[in-house]
Every structure is written in structure tokens, then in C-alpha cells.
């Protein structure tokens, strides 16, 4: 078989068409999971899956699959591609949808090109990846991977008081397949980068080898409220100042480390928060991320040691509450290498990287060899109507996915040497 | 004349008795300016002024004076002592009242001891020093010093919608004297320290030589909101981190300077204030104080220069809004030296210091040589029912005031060699 390429115009048309489905009166794209807008988006996708000649399957948590399975495949596990089509409020048109529609485009291209896969190829759109209406996010892929019982997921009450199961039934997407029915041979997710790296470096393909581990902590520092004018500097127990020390400590440490560690203090509050009163209390959050578990744990330990020193030096009391902790995900090194080789063969600049945001791939990685492919997002803008990936990059990324899927599925008669 | 001493038990009884006037149902001491509780406090003071045989005078802004003037004094300017008897909400019993009642006690002691002053001696209770109900604070002394027209002061609308002039008339303290009618020869204010210095150092007498200048600024830093996971440290424009740098800069600078400069960041807020978003904006206040105008201006300039560097280094935009600026007050060096000598003669440990809080003395200093005497407040607690000055220190401070007043007034036949 000569090497085919995807139909770029068809893919772009699909992305733009789906991007018009579910806009509110103000023109904002809002397709929250299991809403009427989500139904409209799902209906659109299902129609395209059918037009592509694929088998449609919907599982009990509403995950939608388009499956290309030939009789000769028997019960062979499929190569699965996909992502999600639910959105945040006032979203851009690429996040999630690009991976699903590129997956559909890849299958259609392979079929049209006369490719004879040695195993099934399927595309998935997972339910409620964004988690705006129902928590947790990445719910559909989590249920698919067996990380959350489906009945528990369906009983989730949303921010608007609705129950996910009832809403899925209402919009006609409470399917009959048991979640996890389609255990993949491999999973590849194509996604726009939700950060600025590729765009700033002018690199087309991000070969995602890890997904960062996340550590969220809330830190409370208690000092002593005193008059700003009458309390000499040496006699202060200034909780606000101690909090500022933590912010600069984290920043300096992360910035000087020759590592991808990121550290962020996003929330901060002082009490009593009065101009002429030394803060008695400061409460702030620390978001630490690193693709390496050992390094993430070391960063947490370094912070803990610093807090201990600080408490003694500044005569303040510090307490730490752990809000969330996820270990890093390490993607399948053979698929990662395949993505890299494929990009090179296509003449595309690529770089290995870590994903700082969560994706369905991290869930599916629990049950199958998985990896992700990123393409550049202009200025790294995400969850915003200004989100933009240039057409040439959308097409390039889909062609990389095409080659990777063809290789992972193998042609009948070929040895599956992955 | 042999050296007399004040009647400590009478002074303490007065302080405690006035401290019971104006308590609410929950037992909280609340004598806001020109309220019914303030009237009750004023009535109590006026009764004691009359019992001491002094002339009573009330001016149009409600300042109350007890005056010991003999015919032979003619129109000689009086030595004035005093402070205020209005309070904050849920106050302690010493702030202000101590200075007024010690002043009354000093006059009564001198009269009883047969002291023959060469000029009048008077005690003042200035209206609305605390400024809780009507702004600005230190209003009565400001009007007395000519810094605010009396009619403007009387037209002030309070936080409860009342007009000060109407309230003073209602409680019977809209007097007939024109404010400033009593231009002092010298003014001395005895007050509990509103900070912890004397208490922590075990020193009985604070010789207040300056009152700090104050600079209040609100600083806004604008960076860029980005995802905490996907934005590498080197690509961040983190407004929260930049704000933390300012906090540590101010602290380090003030703490390492061999100067009484104090710097406080009391208010802080981040936007969007989300755990996984790099702060796009940080808004915070800076309270800088120094008893020396040159040094205060230099600190402001150093901060401005640092902000400029920081904006460039962190690629953030910084804007500064000036909220308040008062130059330091330098008290009369001869009275300051007299206080110091007097404390020494009484065998009391003393130290020179700067007042970090505002006092009526800073207003009267505009029109007469003035100074202040501080006594220790346990733990520096202020504006709080736990405010406490030990009896022995209350008595010691009043005796210092006694000697200073006697010296400033001079005995007939003595040369006024102040």
C-alpha cells in the first residue's frame, strides 16, 4: 500500500461544523456533558460515524464509539483513537473535538485507501471529559478503564442539580454496552497542546511521553495581627510575609531546577486584610506538577522542609491540607517512539514533552498501551474562544495519527512488530 | 516647694470609674464621639473638673477644657495637657482616658501641694480622636489647631448618617468657645504605648521625640493568566509571584536597615484566584512609616525603583495609587529632653522612641511646642478590652507628667528657663 494522507479539507470542515453546534444566543460554544447542546453535538458525530460506514456503539455512561471491525478480525482488540466532544463554557472549537474527528478521518482515509487492517480500528468520544457540569472530569474514560463504577458515575449530581444518568437517558445517550466492553490493543489521543511550548518553539508535533503528576496543597499560616505602625520589624509574626516567602521559594526552586517541575500559587488570601494591620493569617494553594514521581515527591518534601524552617524562623504556625495527588502517567515507550519516528518520516519537527493538563489518555493508559500526540495551539490559549490551531498543523497532526494507527493496526499479512 | 507626687489611688479610681461608663448590654465599652455614651463619659469628666475647682470651657466642636487660671496670670498662655475620652468599639479603658485623667490628677496635686504656677495649667479632652463614627480621626485637636474649619467639622456626616454638629447639640456639648481660643504655651500628652516596645524591653517611660510619617500605597500588578500545568516557569508572567517579591523586598529592606522604618503589606488579593491558574492580577497595599521624612521619602523611592526593575524582569505591568501621605511630626526637643531628665530624676528607666500611631499631640504640635510621654502596654495590645497597663506604670507616668508640667508652668518668681 502506498502511503495515504488524510483529506485535510474534510477534517477542517468537520471541525468547523461541529464548532457551530451548541452555541448559545450570544454565540458562545457551550456543550456541557449530557446537555441538549451535547446531544446536538453527539447527533452530529453519530451521523458522520454512520456515513463513514462504521459500527456505532454507545455504552452505559454515554461513551460513543465508531468501530471498523471486519469479520476476519474475530475478537481481536482494536486500535482505539479518540478524545471527547464536550466543552467548557465559552469554549474554543479544537479541544477534544480535534482528536475525535481526526480519528474518524484517519479511519475513513484508511478504508478509502484500501488499507486492510489486521485488527479493528475504532474511534471514541468519551463522556464528560471537562467535568464542568459533573465531577470528576475525565469521567467517561475513567469509567471505561474501570476506575469508577458506572452506577456511581450515573448517580453523580451536577452543579445544576441534575443526575448524569437521567440526563443521558433524556438525551438518548444512555447506551446498552457495558463500559470497558472495548478493551483496546493500544490507544492514541491526538490533541491540541493546552500550553504554549510548541507554538513558541515553532515545532509541529509534540510527542507526549508523560502526563505530569499533580500535587495540590492548601497551606495556612498563622501569625499575629498587630499595628503596622507601632510594631517593630523584629517583633513581627507576619503571616502574609511568611506566605510571600513560600511563593518566592517555590518559584526560585522550580525556575532554577534543570527539570520540568512547575509550581504555582494560584489562590491567596490575608486576614484581617486591613492596610494597617500585620496579617494574622494567610491561606494559599500550592500546585506542584512534574512528569516524574520521584521528583514530584522530592519537591513536596523540599516544600515541607522549607515550611518547617520558616515556621521556626518567623515564629508562625503552618498547617498543610492535601487537596489532591495524582501520580504521573508514563506513556507506552514503544508508541511514543513510533510517534516520533512517524513525525520524522513525515518531515515534521517534533519534540518529546510532558502534558501538564489532564486527558482521557491518562485513564485509558491504565488498561492499554497509550500515548498522545500534540499539535501547537497559538499562544497556548485554552478553554477560550480565541483557542486556535493553524490548519496546516491540524492536518499534519492527523497525518501523524494516520501513520501511527496504520502501523499499530498492521496490515493483514504483516507481522505486528510493534 | 518639696517635690509632690500624684495621688495614685485617686487616679486609678478615676480611670476605672470612667472605664465603666458607656458599656453596652454585652459589657463592651463603646463611647463613640457625640453618642449618648460619650455624653455620659463627658458628664463624668465635667463633674470631676468641677470638683477639682477648675474652670470649665467647651468649644464649638465639643472639646472640653478644665482650666486652672489665677487672676495674676492675665492672658498668659497655659501649659496644656490632655488627650481624648472617646473610644473605639469594644475598647480598653486606658487609651486616651489615661492622658486626660492623669492631667486632671496632676493639676489637682499641684493645687493641693501649694504650687503657685507662673502661668495657667489646663487639661483638654479632644472630640472624636478615634474617628470611628466621624472622619477624620483626631478631629477635635485638628480643629483646635486650625487645620480644619469648625463649620466643616460640624457638618461631618457619620457612618450612622448623623451630623456631628447636631449630635453635639443633642448631647449638650456644642460649646460656645471658638476652637483654638486656648493657644497653649506648651502641650504634653501622656498615653499608653500602642505597641509592644516598652513592655518587651521592661522600660517604664517612653520619651516620644517623633511621630512617624505615613505613606500608604495600593499596588496593582498585571501579568497573564495561564494554566498552572502547561506553562513552563520561564514563560510565566505571574502577577502573584511578582507581588510576593515586593513583600519580601520590603521586609528584607526594613529589617536589615539600621532604622526604625516599618513596612507592612496588610491587604492582598489575587485574580482569578484559582488553584490551577497563574494569577493574572495581584492587588496589595503597602504601609510605610518612618519618623524621618528624608528616610520615608527614600524608602518610597527605593520601592518605586524596585517596582520598575521587577516589571522589566517579570514582564508584568505595575501601577501605583497613592492612598495617604503624612509627613512625620518632630516634637519639641526641649520638652523631649525635659521628659527624659524628669524620668531620670524619678529613677525611672526611659527610652526615646517614635510613635507609630496617630495622637492629638501631632495636631497641637502645629501651634505649640509639644511632646508625648508613653507608658508600657502589656503585649502592646490596643483597641481591645485586653488592653492593660500595670498600675505602677500608670502612676509612674503621671508623676513624670506632674514634674514636666510643674517645670513648664514654672513657679511664680522662678525664671521660665524651659
CATH level-1 class of the largest domain in chain A: Alpha Beta
Shape annotation of chain A: elongated
Major sheet characteristics of chain A: 9 strands, mixed
Question: Under CATH, the topology of the largest domain in chain A is which?
Answer: Aminopeptidase
How would you name the CATH homologous superfamily of the largest domain in chain A?
A: Zn peptidases
Note the run of SSEs of chain A as H and E. Answer: HHEEEHEHHHEHEEHEEEHEEHEHEH
Protein model, in words:
Chains A, B: This is Zn-dependent hydrolase. Chains A, B: InterPro entries: Amidase_Cbmase (IPR010158), Bact_exopeptidase_dim_dom (IPR036264), Peptidase_M20 (IPR002933), Peptidase_M20_dimer (IPR011650). Chains A, B: Zn(2+) 1 binds at residues 84, 95, 191. The structure is a homodimer of 418-residue chains. Chain A has helices at 8-18, 36-51, 97-112, 139-144, 150-154, 164-170, 197-201, 239-256, 293-314, 333-345, 360-364, 391-409, and strands spanning 55-58, 64-68, 79-83, 121-125, 186-192, 205-211, 213-222, 262-264, 268-271, 281-290, 317-326, 329-330, 350-355, 370-375. The first copy, chain A, is of the alpha/beta class. Chain A folds into two domains: 8-211 and 329-409, 3-Layer(aba) Sandwich (Aminopeptidase), CATH 3.40.630.10; 213-326, Alpha-Beta Plaits (2-Layer Sandwich). In chain A, the strands form two sheets. In chain A, strands 1, 2, 3, 4, 5, 6, 12, 13 and 14 form a nine-stranded mixed sheet that branches. In chain A, strand 3, helix 3 (97-112) and strand 4 form a beta-alpha-beta unit. In chain A, helix 1 (8-18) packs antiparallel against helix 3, helix 8 (239-256) runs antiparallel to helix 9 (293-314) and helix 10 (333-345) crosses helix 12 (391-409). The longest helix of chain A is centred in the last third of the chain and has 22 residues, at 293-314. At the A-B interface, helix 8, strand 8, strand 9 and strand 10 of A face helix 8, strand 8, strand 9 and strand 10 of B.
